[in-house]
Amino acid sequence: MTSLQASESEASLDVRALATSLYEAATTTTAIEQLSLSHHMTLADAYAVQASGAQLREQRGDRVVGVKLGFTSKAKAEQMGVSDVIIGVLHESMRFAPDSVSDVSQWLHPRIEPEVAFRLGSDVDLADPDADILGAVSDVAAALEIIDSRYENFKFSLTDVVADNTSAAGFVLGDWLPYADVAARLDLADLDVTLDVGDTRAESGNTVDILGSPLAALQAAQRMAQTYNLELPAGSIVLAGAATAAVWLTAGSEITATVSGLGSVRFKV
Ligand code: OOG
Ligand code: MG
Q: Closest-lying ligand to the alpha carbon of 85?
């Protein structure tokens, strides 16, 4: 439960306190009530809460290593009842090694989904209107994303989920492949994507479901990073958004994401 005032006006929105309540929800694995039930937040307010939360993590020794997009696919947007594309930040502490085994109790009610990840080989200058993120991409990989809403029952509004750093909780990267080689060999807008839990096929989709192409998602990342004051330095990881709905991540499961042509990545809890 949040201890914040229900009657707070927009002008006095305590961004730091809201960010702290979300941070503590994550670190104590205690879900909180949706912020939007007691606070009026604009989208700009929600991104301010997200930025404040990222700052909190940095003050505790974490580091931003990239960005992620959310709701770039219809399957995801429908699953969560939210339809606008959103952006969040990835921290070093969210990185899990492929094939590693993790304790599921570190999260509240985690889900996992298949993604396409990109790595930038050079800085994208967001102040330059001619900057082109596609020219900065150096590598691409199949990936898994763990999402874990800090809200009760994994329920949220658009502003809630933005404030909660787009439910970002973990990511697992497959082997990086040189982007130039992949782009010459494959149509990134038409790669089959599957999510297996153990030996069972849980979800299947195609990269066309990611805004028509993961490359369009990269361009959306550039635009949104510019709007919301995020940076895209060389080395940044960009998660383009899930191609399918997410599945619950429960103890004892082994999850594999496969993107045809990019390979597989596996994670166990
Ligand atoms: C928000 C995050 C959505 C995606 O790939 O669409 C997302 C959520 O579903 O909790 O990461
Ligand atoms: Mg995702």
A: 1
* 39 — pLDDT class (breaks 50, 70, 90): very high
Q: Is the pLDDT of residue 46 over 60?
A: yes
- Close Cβ partners of 195 (under 8 Å, ≥ 6 residues apart): 112, 113, 114, 201, 202, 203, 204, 244, 247, 255, 256, 257
DSSP 92: G
Q: Which residues are within 5 Å of ligand 2 (an ion), measured at CB?
A: 145, 242
Ligand 1 centre and the CA of 249: distance in Å?
14
The answer, yes or no, to whether residue 87 has pLDDT greater than 50, is yes
Q: Does 9 have pLDDT greater than 80?
A: no
Token pair of 14 as six digits:
């305590």
Question: Which tokens sit at 74?
Answer: 């219809």
Q: Examine the pLDDT at 252 and tell me if it is beyond 70.
A: yes
**CB under 6 Å to ligand 1: residues?**
68, 70-72, 76, 80, 113, 145, 147, 149, 161, 166-167, 241-242
Minimal CA–CA distance to 156: which of 50, 267, 250, 263?
A: 50
